[in-house]
């Protein structure tokens, strides 16, 4: 199924914002979405940009720029990660916040969508500096975040530790009575600081589950299936770990430091151990061969898992892709023109808002446990996660079948319809 150009004539900007808007427009056209609801959903509710000073280890003061975009909260508090990366800007935050709105809606969660972060390269700062940067950013965000208002979580280059610093800083601004009841201001925390069992692996496990469901749908087994993963951080590692457990063979890996290939398979645990000792980088791992980064997406494998940044699969490299499945661990890894090429080639694509939704579902479980003073065991978290992922996957494939559209369009339609119902039932658009 080829994605048609949207009817609306907006200026075409390169980048993730253009991509998510085109995806939205396409689904809204298919749905014949009420034009008033369309107007609401195509804009963000709030966009916060903060500049804040931080003292560096050498005593100098540096000014940083942070962002938090709150796209929509019709279904519940704003929810979404914080990214620390040089490419973070207002448009990136807007695009990622919109994807969060569709993702939480599709998953049937009582959340809206937000995203943010800081424009920086974390590899240039010490841990102490990153802690001070995070604390000053949290202070600058002030009461624009909150457990019932906007709940951040980890994303690229932010971790459970980052969330713990945010929690601690946020708490320090509250009265003693509020301090014990605000643990759910962030999710993805370390377990000892109120985190949930399983949130660390929830996104990668969800990616693996959708691949497993895909294999069932197509009548395949995962045993012996070859896969390549771009990004060997939280999402890429855990997705690879679970796929390997099921008999999948990792033949290619790319991260910001390099690209590796081994036709006979790369041991996921060994590579992870190497990366852990090498500041998270895979470069220099001796049990696989370094290859040219431009050859990564054309690797001969069954499954490709982009689990790094947006707009990685483009019209330039899409024709080279040999995999029969793309499982989008990352947000927005495939641009609209690449998607048209891939669908024409009959490559299956599990869209990001479905494929990587295990993370925010895991975050919802953490938020619920904090709110209700509960602690769930790992098994319960993983069982509930699997149930929710299966429901979402089945709904998307059934909608796609019924409407004869691709999986991304079906996922967007389900997500937008839920939001449209919320606005209609509130009586705003009788
Ligand atoms: N952490 C989470 O729970 C969730 C993350 N995601 C998405 O998954 C993707 C990855 O996130 P995380 O694993 O959390 O981040 P991470 O910071 O743990 O790992 C990012 C990985 O991407 C690699 N990378 C960065 N730039 C690259 C480039 N130009 N080429 C190749 N590799 C590059 C890094 O080297 C690293 O291995 C992002 O798109 C994020 O938005 C989506 C849902 C939830
Ligand atoms: O866990 C969350 O709240 C959001 C994670 C995230 O940023 C994402 O799903 O893209």
UniProtKB/TrEMBL annotation:
NAD(+) binds at residues 203, 234. The record marks 155 as: Important for catalysis. Pfam families: ELFV_dehydrog (PF00208), ELFV_dehydrog_N (PF02812). CDD domains: NAD_bind_1_Glu_DH. Coiled coil: none annotated. Substrate binds at residues 79, 103, 363. One of its GO terms (biological process) is L-glutamate catabolic process. The active site is at 115 (proton donor). InterPro entries: Aminoacid_DH-like_N_sf, Glu/Leu/Phe/Val/Trp_DH, Glu/Leu/Phe/Val/Trp_DH_C, Glu/Leu/Phe/Val/Trp_DH_dimer, Glu/Leu/Phe/Val_DH_AS, Glu_DH, NAD(P)-bd_dom_sf, NAD_bind_Glu_DH. Keywords: NAD, Nucleotide-binding, Oxidoreductase. The keyword Isomerase does not apply. GO terms for molecular function: glutamate dehydrogenase (NAD+) activity; nucleotide binding. Residues 196-427 form the Glutamate/phenylalanine/leucine/valine/L-tryptophan dehydrogenase C-terminal domain. Belongs to the Glu/Leu/Phe/Val dehydrogenases family. This is Glutamate dehydrogenase. It comes from Robiginitalea biformata (strain ATCC BAA-864 / DSM 15991 / KCTC 12146 / HTCC2501).
